[in-house]
Amino acid sequence: MLLILVSCKRNIILTLLLISFFNNFSQNKPNIIWLVCEDQSLFFSAYGDSSAQTPNINELALNGTVYDNFYTVSPVCSPSRSSIVTGMYPTTIGTQHMRAYKKNKGSINSKTNLPIYSAVPKRKVQFFTEILRANGYYCSNNSKEDYNMEMSPLAWDESNKNAHWRKRAKNQPFFSVFNFNITHESRIWKNHEKHSEEDINKIILPPFFPKNHTIKNDFVTNYKNIEKLDEQVGEIIEQLKEDGLYDKTIIFFYSDHGGPFPRYKRSIYDSGLKCPLIIKWTEPKIKPRNDQMISFIDLAPTILELTKSQTIHKMEGVSFYNQNNRDYIFAATDRFDEFTDKRRCVRNNEFKLIINWDTKSSAMKPVSYRKNMKTMRILDSLNDLKKNTNSMENWYKNTKPKYELYDIVNDPYELNNLYSNKDYDNVFNELKKKLNDWIDDSDYGNITEPKMIEEMWPSGEKPDLKDPKIIKTERGFKIISNNENSSLGWRDSPNENWQVYLIEEIIYPKNNFEIIEFSPGYGSKKSLFKI
Q1: Residues 361, 120: contact at Cβ < 8 Å?
Q2: Of 106, 233, 245, nearest to 182 (Cα)?
Q3: Burial class (CB within 10 angstroms; exposed 0-12, middle 13-18, buried 19+) of 422
């Protein structure tokens, strides 16, 4: 009985200490939420397109900052999301192919006949949420992962369809991600219906598309999906207000890459790379519009700066919170399902340069998945009948130029290639040097996927992690990794979340404790240490 009372008293004291800690800690640490939609370009009122009614997203824009130059590093989800969680380019860490890693999907990719693999970066790479958790944050992900590599078990306190900030300890600061798939490419055909002539007639298609009733109908479907997205965003905002947290929480709204249509998604043009980004700040002084150039690799370091969290390794991204002064944006395309199209681009505020490796194939890749969309089938049919627009004819053409140079101020849809115009030689030479320097710095962007897999997984074998070393100190324990590029965690019980282990930290487990080590490509390895 005495033991029970002592144990209860100890737990009460520990709980009170935790509450006191989080009360003091959270006063200086902002709560942050990411509201992430899929497959959307600038189809929002904040960017001048009021086709969809989005009062909740408009509220974020009204109370925050609209960013006009926000770019993904890849126009498709898995490579893009790998850059978001690591602050690194996919071509650096080997996650540039769509899709390489598929959890619980066997050993061979049916679309490529190559092994399913999780990338093994050559540089130190860490899921940035591990750093947040080590700094006292509750991190939840609801619920898409799709990082093109195995997820770190230390990355989230919870990652599933029920993950929510409400499950954290009282007053603990949180970083919570909510992913919305209502606007995904597949929802164009899954939510397909025949819309009213009034709605269809309002649609103004981009100039590269033919004026076609069916294509316009698909655009209406996308706008209807955006309106449903706005309702879902509104539900999260309302929950924050119910909890008295709306004014205390920084809210990011953005898309994982450009729009769901052909020549948007999977395209290295701005229609595939340029994304909406709206941030509702907790500070009133932030200006309503921002035109600095921002890359997806800048998201992770920005969150680390906002939360005053330190990382011990260098990310390729830089924080944009206090103006990052980025002059160039870089992006790449590689394999999309069963087709590969290696292209690289660099852009500044005025011009964009694209390098095409395969000049003997079209920019259009007949990816089977998107043939479910009526717009794609219409474009195919018009191409067969030779009734497409000039822009679409060029897209389908069986050759590509080695270089494409665009004046993106006067030609935002990138239709007029200036490469052969000698007046732009200086621009071309400047951008070519910048792009070649970036390409040369890539660890994996210059080799074929089969060769890359062989480098990462020799003879098709997943590399193994070595066991960590446990050092007993006077009162506790230290954990020493015997691996490069890995993260460590520990817990007292299988019922608890993993705690991120800090280098040289002394831990004080209650009894026997579990250790886990994770390294990208190697996966994770558990062990039990008996006291």
Answers
A1: no
A2: 233
A3: exposed
pLDDT in tens, 127-162: 999 999 999 999 999 999 999 999 999 999 999 999
Q: Is 77 a catalytic residue?
A: yes
Residue 231 to residue 215: CA distance in whole angstroms: 25
pLDDT of residue 105: 72
Residue pointed to by tokens 């390098």: 355
Q: Which domains are seen in the chain, by residue range?
A: 27-326 (3.40.720.10), 335-459 (no CATH), 469-529 (2.60.40)
Q: Which residue has the tokens 């390409």?
A: 439
Please list the helix, strand and coil fractions of the chain in percent, rounded to the nearest 5, in that order.
30, 20, 45
Buried-exposed string 463-483: b where 16+ CB fall within 10 A, e elsewhere: eebeebeeeeeeeebbbebeb
Cα-based torsion angle of the residue sequence 213, 215, 220, 222 in order, rounded to the nearest 10 degrees: 170
Please report the sign of the dihedral spanned by the C-alpha atoms of residue 405, residue 411, residue 417, residue 421: negative
pLDDT band at 11 (very low <50, low <70, confident <90, very high): very low
The whole-model pTM stands at 0.94
Strand ranges in 181-309 using DSSP code E only, listed in sequence order: 249-255, 274-280, 289-290, 294-295
Secondary structure of 79-122 in HEC code, one letter for each residue: HHHHHHHHCCCHHHHCCCCECCCCCCCCCECCCCCCECCCCCCC
Which of 37, 77, 275, 345 is flagged as catalytic?
Answer: 77
Q: Which of the residue ranges 16-30, 47-61, 345-359 would you say has the lowest mean pLDDT? A: 16-30
User: Phi, psi (5° rounding) for residue 12?
Assistant: -65, -45
The pair of structure tokens assigned to 36 is 């992430």
Look at the block and give the residue holding tokens 């930290």.
Answer: 505
Q: Which residue has the tokens 């292209």?
A: 343
